[in-house]
């Protein structure tokens, strides 16, 4: 029973305490005066009566009513019903107030003047019950009595109100005394008694009827079950105001503890909304701040850090704006605003969707049938009250789904004196497969759920609707969840129960509530103020009632306690989509078999299964299976194993634990915990190592949560055992119940506990005490047990290592990592890394301390929760350090012994073969090679899983090599090698790797190389981390040496060669002196030069350089003025060395210059003066331009002094020099750097700029013009046109008619131009002709890029009337003599002058930075570091993003344009950037395309030496070869050039003497630093270092080749690998490749790799490996005929070796045959040349040449055909050509009569069926049953392994096929019916297959024998 009202108050406006217009309220009267004991009086009620503040108003307002909620000091909630009305105040009353404040009653003075103001007064009723309507009626009645002046004393009404007692729950209670006993009421209200003491028949009704003695009557419906909230219609109202999604947001926010604020202008609605939100949270109770109406004065409460649900009047909206983390729900506007920083976790799908559907069906039933043609007539939603319950039912249904099976995860750890219950969150989430679900995790961690567990956990208590739902309806919910209609039916049933609970009785018509009469409200102005009440009278009522209650017999209401049913246990894990997660039985079988093998000691079998088992253990079922299987092998808590068994078991445990999360949701770590202390192995006398010492490396052991739940579940089972014993099996025949673990148990612990709780009151005191004591000691003994267990798993085996516990679990300490190397921790690790320190005790105690602290924390927590006595707790705390110390001592012994074990058998480390002169820097380090993003090697694309592989990494002076074997035992016998030159390393980063076999995260490195190789390695556990660090340091040292002399090309073989022969030394000395002198004199000059101007500082040593073995010209014996220094130099050279010097000149570019006729090396006096160009020695000391060669080609007419001046205009002083001349048109190709900014201004100065004094810039620009003019004059076409090579000759040139050479051969050149320069048609200006700049439009010519240059270049005349000359002669469009290819960015501004003969073509060039970034992306695309399924990261997408192909396109496009221009007779000067990157690319490509010589071996070498090495491409700098250039990064400009050559090679495969392999070889070695060729940045640097002239002299160590060219020459003599068999050039062929991106192919150099031997570019290694292989003797093969076939794996085998092309194969066979015969084998080249000449002569003899020979040898294919390229790739040179060759060779050697000619053979070969005919001829075949013999043409095909037959020989359609695989035997046959006549008997033979027998007949016995032998040999070959 409870009081309806605890307190009644009258609160009024406080006239004495008004502050600045802010009024205050005060309590005028309060009844009762004293606080009740059971409910203290809540403070601060005055604030809540007027939440917006107390104010006086000028007009009376209608009375208002609302209910606020207050929370008292005991955190009980009180309803505080406020009824407010307004009373007038006279001015006189106001005057009584302090006069100073009168005018502050309100801000408006008018108010004060008015006769009357109104003050609010509130009647307040405080109650612990929540009956809004009853309170409204009661307070309304009191007000009515007062206003209408009813004849009832107010004291009586209030007295009755305060003494009214009603039942809390359970509807009517019959045998109670009357509710309101009014026996001592003053006589005046006698008539009331009749009402209050009705006859017996009305008795029941009156029990829930109250009256306050003013002729009123109310029925109070008390709920049947008070645990269910009462909502009226507030929930439905809330949904109507905010909508479904918004309320769901609020619901989730409240459950996940966010702050929620409601806004509304109605107070009652705020209260309703807050109550509604709480109602739908049932069965969870909200335990944070809950204030439905917050007074304005307390708004700062909103900035509290804790969660809350608060309502505030919209009046204060502006003050809620700055709240950053509060969700604001505006009830009036229907919006919910969620701040950006707040993330609300929503319900997990599919529950969220289903809940929304159900809610919309409740709120809007018309939605479903909105589209029906004939909708039912009435589908109104239910009445608001019913709808309210339906919504709540949906949420009940939702919670039943969320919490289903929660009781199976409760651990009961004490039953007496009070049940103590814990919830096992991890197991609950694990079984629901919702560990990832944010929402559920937060709810389970929240306060509300903790309350839920403590309230609903106990097994013996009163139950309610929710318990019933979770226990008995889960199955129904699960089946119906997908069907909304069924869900609705269920919801309706639940709603009915909820409604019945709230309204247990049908509506009663007994209500009688008096309202104030109309007139009393109208004539309110003469209303009396509310009177003061008589305290004594009211108190009399209260005392009287209290006395009566005391004398009355106590009301005993039997509490209906019962056992709480648990409901069905959680079944199979159900994943998000509702599918049961299966784990195939096959996998479990594998796990079981493996364990069986281990325990039966079948180790080999177990080893084979191991990888499969480790893969299977990723699945939960397999892990559970493992724990169950291992359990069966434990006897009396022990299982002693031998070393290998122990090792395998530990590996499986580690693998199992590795995938457990730290909360262990599937209970796997829990199941393994008893096992790790059971499995052990004997290490020595009395020393045993347990499995726990090897499985410590997992997060789960350091998680406090895990240990707690483990502890609780163990305690629960022990306590259960305790009571089962006491009952002596009395309960055994109970219904069997399933326990959470799944094993059938008779009685679960909860059921036992409930039974015990029921019996508890009946036990004697002694019995009770004994049970409490037994339970407590059970818990205590478990705590000791767990302290031991935890020390086992937390103390590392090697406690001397100061690697402390991980920060995650162990709070303040860092991390313990134990070595998990099972046998012998030291493994193969050197002792020295276990550094012995003098501080061992201190360190181990450190580990000990941290473990002790961790265990202490654990013990404190669990013992406090499970009620262990303080004495026991103290005992525990003293025990723990001893336990830990003891354990450390035993571990030390174990550790000592385990070190003595032999190390684990790991694969033997394989030594790599090294190059001569290559030495190991660090010895082998055992590592694992991890697969990267390339899938070929991992077996994902088919093929064997070669990676991951286990082996060692070797660091040598030259390479980084991994060599090992695949970890997969099925591929174990292969050797995997991956290596790259250390100099090509571009990026190294640390990674942490998880190996699939040993489940540990290891430190590793990812190393990327510019040879398109990537190594991801993980160091084995035996490699100490400091060793790995040493490895990194060494690698860095080798990668970035201080100086280029530290690179491998210089250091190679130094250490070994201490004795140097005298002679070599001598020669070197003289060379050194030479270079020193050269350098000295150069330095002098440089010194002078620097005084005058600081321009280009040559790259210092630190700046990256690049070595060339290029011998360059200097002034020796070539200089025109005989220079003193040169004389001294040559005189210092001994006669023996003069030879060397002539070599220099011989090998220099001079040879090329002579070949091109650009200058001779004859003496200056005899040199003919009429040659247009000369070889200048102006740069012999490298003073003019440091990065140019010593000898340069310049126009004859330009003296050296001019050159000194000109070079200043160009960047790095790289002035224009001639590098090639077209032999036909005599046009020349020049190269230079771009102009300096100053140069540009000076050279192309706008004429109108006033220059008073001719500045230096002016004179230089004149010199420049002279220089360009000299070049133009050298062209024959120019000298023909103009008589005089002077400036005055300009006009005459223009007047003369267009020269024949103007007509271009290809009119598309204009279009080419357009493409190169960009496509915008109307950009003015930047394309001008001549030396001066100007806008082209300005000069009246057509727009820049378009028709003008285009038509002029195409050699078209502009049409003119009458064919006469155009009006302005100088506007005649004509081809320029010199085109300057310049950089768009530099060529800006200037005026146009049309009288000059050069024209500038501005193009956009790719920046070096672009190349660098592009290359990085290209590497990532071709060799990704990890595989990804992201479509944006696919190979094609990454390739496109890298823009590599676009860059190639741009370079090729410009080159083709230049080729076109040169071919039409114009000279071209390429002057881009610094003249050493893009310029070099373009110039070399132009020469390659224009001049066939450069497409031969010698020519290409010369081209690279001349353009790349001599002209100073900065190889060292661009390749980041030294420490100094490390920062500049790797920029493969040369690789880009080689790629362009590769693209051209693909399109013109018959034009190149060298093969694609040659290009790959250069691409690899230009970054490898194996040769000195590509080191250093210029000839100057090479001379300074003395490497330029030593090539020829240093022949004493022949195996160490210093120049890549010599190496290639040597190799080319031995093997045709560099040679292109299709080489048959046409004379003077100019190549014009297609340059569009669609025509370009990705170079396979970027993609291929050969894991069997590593890169194939170091040939010594290849040869050695083959030799090693040959040396191993073959075992005699007894297995019968051996197949000739072998499998070729794409990323493993070298294709060129495994499947060589036919010509190579024939040449090899030839050599081996010659060797067998003992003949001296001739060189392959001679053989090849012989064959070619014989072919040629034959071709001439034959009437019509065969296609094959012409394809190979001759050059009579049309140009058209060639330019499109006969696309035969390197690898594919095979089939078509070789076969033809084959036939031809045999045809010439042994002419056979009747043999068809080669050409028909060839066409035959090309027939539709590309078949291999090993043997063919006519046979008679007997048909099937009853069919005659018929002759057929039979073909035996060895390759396809079949026998085919045709109607006739010519027939293309095959009639039938006999598969030789099916043939069992071939035997002589006998003639049968219908056989052909006149044929001897021996000609018959039979072929027996598995299906039938074929009868054959040959022409004669000999033929038959041949056939039988052929078939037989085919069979045996297979």
Could you please describe the fold and organization of this structure?
- This protein is an alpha+beta fold and 1918 residues long.
- The chain is built from 62 helices and 44 strands.
- The strands form 12 sheets. It has a 7-stranded antiparallel β-sheet, with helices on one face. The protein has a 7-stranded antiparallel β-sheet with strand order 41-40-39-38-44-43-42, with helices on one face. Strands 3-2-6-5-4 form a 5-stranded antiparallel β-sheet.
- Helix 33 crosses helix 52 (1579-1585) and helix 42 (1309-1317) runs antiparallel to helix 43 (1344-1353).
- The longest helix is centred in the middle third of the chain and has 31 residues, at 870-900.
- It is elongated, with a radius of gyration of 51 Å.
Which descriptors would you attach to this protein?
44 strands, 1918 residues, 7-stranded antiparallel sheet, single chain, alpha+beta, elongated
Quick overview:
The chain contains 62 helices and 44 strands. The protein is of the alpha+beta class. Helix 4 (132-148) runs antiparallel to helix 5.
What would the principal axes of the Cα set say about the shape? Answer: elongated
- Spatial strand sequence of the major β-sheet: 27-26-25-24-30-29-28
Largest sheet: 7 strands, antiparallel
Structural class: alpha+beta
User: Unreliable stretches, pLDDT < 50, 5 or more residues?
Assistant: 98-113, 172-207, 572-582, 729-745, 802-843, 1056-1146, 1239-1257, 1283-1307, 1319-1373, 1389-1394, 1591-1598, 1670-1679, ...
Summed up, the helix count is 62
Oligomer: single chain
**Structure summary, number of beta strands:** 44
Distance between the termini: 100 Å
Helix content: 25-40%
Percent strand equals 5-15%
